[in-house]
Write a structure and sequence with these properties.
alpha/beta
């Protein structure tokens, strides 16, 4: 069977194209498992946790007895009380009968199995036998548990963690696991738990023994290139592997699911379209942009989960809205709950001490979500939608006309509003105007490096043609000229000869309108509102 790109569950290098994990596994073994650490792999959804955990189980087998469990295989009923949990836990451990018999012998293993017949078996009895297994085994025993957060609201799970912690702290006197690895989205150390139906939410930290897991699980451009090189060796597309890898990384920042989703679309879906029927056109920057457009326009569990979390944590939604539309710079502080949660879910990262959305795809998906909430009630969106056909001619986007009409409509509709209103909503109004014009055919994203309270660059892709639009708040002629020079430099970076500059100017003597500005060999169409 030919290998393919996988976006559904665990990846296997024998049947899937994937980033090789050997370097990551070696680091985890040396930094954590060999050093007797207990730790949590706590990452956002579809970040490769299960793939890493399963690969780690295989990687450790030569030196350790590995018990690889999955709490997702246990129903809520299995966590109702201690007795049921212990029976369910033993049932999963029994799957490793061969390795246990080889390392601890039949008598010790059967002692574990036989306690299932005890109608009053308790957690402490289970741990006494697990301790005996760890002390008897020829190889040290490691336990991996996936999807631990599926059990996190249960008192029996907290008791289980407390027992692991107690044995860990007494490990110099009592045999216990060499290492315990828990994996899930939620950080079980700090989240509020509702432990009893009649109880309130409270913090619990039976896992404060955990070592900090500081290994980056996102993919670098070089790692993506290595994966693409394997694909190219099989398919001979003629792609520029490094350029395509850099392009994919630019959109995803190495988020594993998003990397695989783009590659899967390039491999399987784009060849079915008229525009990309020639293979040489698929694995290009234009092909990647088309794949990203499709990802942004389709439902997916990752994004559905994001919407649910935003509804559950409105303060997180408010923070992201302020970052995206107001250019607000928020200092990264992991002790701030809303920042901690957004980081735990994988939506934001710490870049140079500032909270930033984790990648361009998340960012654009969030923009689209927030904008869609305003679309039905937005006059400027409805106006652009009604005039959409005027801006497209022979498959080309007339960005000059888009800017010209935006200036006219914005000035007529919102020109009398105060400075604070424009600063907060000016950029949102431009995106609301742009979105229905390019929707379904083009795509846009915001350049994070230039987004702040004063300046935002919007990159628009429309059928392979790219437009750079800078939105900025007017802060005097000197600042404006500096902005023109910055935009010219940015055009050079993107190999563009022409760019667009929209200035929201609060000077009462301003001249509203459009003019052409030449900066070096670049032409800038500058609009003043």
């Amino acid at each position: 069977m030919e290998r393919y790109f996988n976006t559904e569950g665990q990846c296997n290098p024998d049947i899937h194209y994937m980033v090789r994990l050997e370097d990551r596994l070696k680091k985890i073994k040396e930094r954590f498992v060999d050093r007797n650490c207990y730790f949590v792999i706590n990452k956002g959804r579809q970040f490769g946790k299960t793939t890493t955990l399963m690969a780690l189980a295989e990687y450790l087998k030569e030196d350790y007895v590995v018990l690889s469990l999955d709490f997702q295989k246990m129903s809520n009923t299995n966590f109702e009380n201690e007795h049921i949990f212990v029976l369910s836990f033993i049932q999963q451990v029994e799957a490793f009968r061969s390795a246990l018999l080889e390392n601890v012998g039949e008598e010790v293993f059967e002692a574990l199995v036989s306690i299932k017949e005890n109608e009053k078996v308790t957690m402490d009895k289970l741990f006494l036998i697990l301790s005996n297994i760890c002390g008897t085994s020829r190889k040290p025993v490691v336990m991996l548990i996936d999807e631990v957060d599926s059990a996190s609201n249960n008192q029996v799970f907290i008791d289980f963690l407390a027992m692991l912690r107690g044995y860990y702290l007494d490990r110099n006197n009592t045999p216990t696991f060499q290492s315990v690895v828990l994996a899930g989205v939620y950080d079980i150390k700090n989240l509020k738990r509702k432990l009893r139906p009649e109880g309130g939410h409270q913090y619990n930290s039976p896992w404060n023994i955990a070592a900090k897991f500081n290994i980056d699980m996102s993919f670098s451009a070089a790692q993506i290139a290595s994966m693409l090189q394997e694909y190219e060796a099989d398919h001979h597309t003629g792609m520029n592997v490094l350029a395509v890898a850099e392009c994919i990384f630019g959109y995803t920042s190495g988020y594993p699911y998003l990397v695989s989703a783009i590659c899967k679309l390039l491999d399987e879906d784009l060849p079915e379209t008229e525009r990309f029927k020639e293979q040489i056109n698929i694995w290009t920057e234009a092909g990647v942009a088309e794949a990203v457009k499709q990802i942004l326009g389709e439902p997916a569990p990752l994004f559905e989960s994001m919407v649910r979390q935003l509804e559950e944590y409105p303060e997180m939604k408010q923070m992201l809205n302020a970052i995206l539309f107001q250019g607000k710079r928020i200092s990264y502080n992991a002790d701030t709950l809303v920042i901690y949660l957004a980081s735990m879910f994988g939506y934001v990262v710490n870049r140079n001490g500032i909270v930033q959305v984790a990648n361009r795809i998340f960012e654009t998906r969030l923009y689209n979500l927030f904008l869609s909430e305003d679309e039905l009630h937005s006059a400027i969106y409805n106006k652009a939608q009604a005039d959409q056909s005027r801006f497209i001619s022979h498959g080309k986007l007339n960005m000059d006309l888009v800017i010209e009409k935006f200036v006219v409509y914005f000035t007529d509709s919102y020109g009398d509003n105060d400075e604070k209103f424009i600063e907060e909503y000016g950029r949102k109004f431009f995106l609301l105007y742009l979105k229905p014009i390019i929707n379904g055919t083009g795509n846009y994203y915001i350049e994070a490096r230039t987004r702040d309270a004063r300046r935002t660059d919007v990159i628009v892709d429309y059928l392979g043609e790219q437009f750079i639009v800078e939105l900025k708040i007017w802060h005097g002629n000197e600042y404006n000229e500096r902005g023109e020079e910055q935009l010219a430099d940015y055009l050079e970076y993107y190999h563009q000869k022409k760019g667009y500059l929209i200035s929201f100017n609060f000077n009462k003597k301003k001249e509203v309108g459009i003019k052409e500005v030449i900066v070096g060999d670049k032409m800038i169409l500058e609009a003043v509102i």
